[in-house]
Amino acid sequence: MHVVSYFDSVGRDLRFALRALLRRPAFASAAVVTLALGIGATTAIFSVVYSVLIKPLPYPNADDLVTIRHPAAGLNIDDMGAGPTMYFTYRDENRTFADVGLWQTAGETLTGFGEPERLTALRVTDGTLQALGVQPMRGRWFTQQEYRPSAEGPEPVILTYAFWQRRFGGDEAGVERELSIDSRPSQIVGVMPPGFRFLDLTPQPDVIVAARLDPAKQVIGEFGYHMLARLKSGVTPDEARADVDRMLPIWLRAWPLYPGVSLSRDAIANWRISADVRPLRDDVVGTVASTLWVIMGAIGAVLLVACANVANLMLVRADARREELALRRALGAVPRRIARELFVESLCLGAAGGLLGLLLAYVGLRVLIAVAPSDLPRLQEISVYPPVLEFTVAVSLASTLVFGSITALKHALAVDTATIGRARGSSASRERSATRNTLVVAQVALALVLAVSAALMIRTFQSLRDVEPGFTEPAAIQTARLWMPNALTPDPKQDTRAQHEMLDRIAALPGVASAAFASALPMDGQRGRTSVVVEGQALAPGVTPPPREMKFVSPGYFEAMGTRLLVGRDVSWSDIEAGGRVALISEDFARELAPDPAGALGKRIRLPLQSDAWREVIGVVENVHEDGLYEEARSTVYWPLLMESFLNRPAFGTPAAALVIRSKRAGTASLMGDVRQAVSSVNANVPLAQPRTMQELYAGSLARTSFVLVMLAIAGGMALALGVVGIYGVIAYVVSQRKREIGIRSALGADPGRLERMFLLQGLALCGVGALAGLASAAALGRSMSSLLFGVGPMDPAAYAAALAVTVAAAALAAYLPARRAAKVDPVETLKAE
Predict the structure, then answer these.
(1) What is the Cα–Cα distance from 63 to 233, expressed in whole angstroms?
(2) pLDDT of 719-731, one tens digit each?
């Protein structure tokens, strides 16, 4: 019975609270919208944080999955990659792995089904799929026999669900169908389930193929793979790292060296290759964790500002009800009951704000996904999951506790019955004013911290835009990738002749200024590195030349890209026909060879292979930021598209290449249609893929900075707006409470300007205290943003000055409006009202 009575009492409180809020729709709307903005923004960002950083990876027992990297301290390389010899050693000698495997991505051309299509293929060794533990939804994994080079019959392939749906319409008869991939007979043996994603590859693979590695043919020197493993039960990554370090000397002794390389085992030992075994989650998330936590903290600050604003609104609302509450207390109302009613009213506001905030979060999440950088891990998995809903409920309740408790304690448990009959004309107590002022100071401080953060990111963005990327007018550069069908034309010279003919036909298209090929484009994530020997340059015994970026280019590449040729000349087709015994180098590399870039001309370089021919340096070009604007430009060697006596091969070509076309028509479908026709007229089996402009790649290198900038700018703008509303509300309320006093002062001859300054200075004083606290907090927290900054320090004076100026100006405007109204109070009308 007691429980029924209690719930009946709570029900009456709820109905009373709803009626009270409906009688004050302006107050209720302001409180709900303010709270919804804070909760919505926080929920949307938390959805991203949860999906990227917290949500388990979509594999069974994902915490046991690790990646194995191989840093080489002697070469100053963060990761050498992994090779087949390492795989066989770890597979046979390890004590800590349940499964271990290699993987790499490759391009494969599907023919025989209409227009040729370039597929993204994932090549895996035995152990890779077993480590992930995701079974196909149709068919099966590869058998151990199918991983062997001696396996007969069509090459088995497993399709990903998206490719199966797109190419075969989800036809169940597609399993066991035979395909032609790179002119090799292949057969579908399985289809992966819809939720399967291989790590965070972009793009995700279309097909999975078995890497057939022959142990008898493997040598030390191949590091073009990635390594994935599943730990045995109870094994930690540190224990696995020690195990790999134990196996590395075994690996170095057990396998033959790459033939023709002028290196000894002692020289390779001097590379100081070690193990870096890290949880797969850390490898997938990478450096984005700090970025997301900074944004989460910023949006959390907005929520605090919103709560402070609502708390101030509730205080003002309760102040207006002082006489009512005092009368109820005098009539015998229990303070606890009054507090409960106020708390229920706050709960209603919190619930309404939470529901509206959830709706805003759904909308905001769609916007976030649209503007988020494409390299944000697990981007396609971002959604509002049940834990996010729980987070929204928790935030709503916490917000209710914050402002509900303040109002309940301040105005229910300390009601003064002496205010009955004179609450209308009295001023707010000093204690209540102090509470409101403290909340406003906190709002201004938080708003200034976010304004400083946004200003630092704006300065970073400006610094990045000032960096010369090494190419010009990126919007006028059209790019696409193509792959020569090597199985049909295995002769590199024949491939290069076909590529030359394609360029001639593309260059003749309307509006095309120049066209060229390159093995990779700046900022496209395709990298090649190699050590380079310089003729006459003495090296200590066992010391390997430092690695350089390397790229294969056709004549006209630098013209098409707008990369300045500093000295010398470009490679020509005559050079290529003569065996490609020339090279160009970047300015950084040239200055290592001579004080002036011109001094590098005529020097000869080659790979550290004994059989590799010397190449004469014929030109020096400006440095190019190949890895994005955040990274320093690296020393680079530009080899011709086709070379003789290179990498122990009589002729080395570049069958997979990127087209670079400078044209005013860049980015248009008509240009790409003409290019496809020109390429097809030379070889109809050559697919074109990934059409995009260099502007897209350039913008992609700025995408994460832009994302952080937009998020912090939104957070700073919201916090500043709420802070301004808070200052305006406090000063306006003080003016309304002191209206009788102002009228008397005016009647006695007080100067209106002086009255205006009095209230304006009160608002500026609150802003000043908040600004001091905000500056101190920004200085303390600025170091956490250091990894996001470029060309600007965390204590940049310009950023702090700009943020402070904007905050003070906004606060001055917020205080000026009610102060100006106070100066215009009509003393006669005010005294009549009294």
Answers:
(1) 11
(2) 888 777 777 777 7
Q: What is the dihedral of CA 521, 523, 525, 529, to 10 degrees?
A: 70
Distance of alpha carbon 375 from alpha carbon 556, whole angstroms = 31
* pLDDT confidence band for 261 (50 / 70 / 90): low
φ, ψ (nearest 5 deg) of residue 552: -105, 125
Report which DSSP code applies to 561: H
Nearby residues of 697 by Cβ (< 8 Å), 6 or more positions away: 474, 479, 521, 522, 523, 524
| Residues recorded for the chain | 834
Which pair of tokens denotes residue 331?
Answer: 């009539």
Of all helices (H) and strands (E), which one includes residue 212? Answer: none
Higher pLDDT, 331 or 218: 218
Please tell me the predicted confidence (pLDDT) of residue 424. Answer: 45
Distance CA 727, CA 733 (A): 10
Contact 701, 628 (CB under 8 A): yes
Strand 477-483 relative to strand 178-181, pairing: unpaired
One-letter amino acid of 813:
L
- CA-based nearest residue to 219, from 119, 93, 88, 99: 88
Beta carbons of 662 and 562 less than 8 angstroms apart: yes
The string of pLDDT tens digits covering residues 750-808 is 677 777 777 778 878 888 888 898 888 888 777 778 878 888 888 899 999 998 898 88
Q: 736: which residues sit within 8 A by CB, 6+ positions away? A: none
Q: Which amino acid is at 434?
A: A
Name the residue with tokens 């001579």: 594
Least confident of 59-68, 193-202, 621-630, 729-738: 729-738
Residue recorded with tokens 């630092």: 456
Question: CA 697, 703, 705: angle at the middle one, nearest 5?
Answer: 135
Q: What is the pLDDT of residue 426?
A: 45
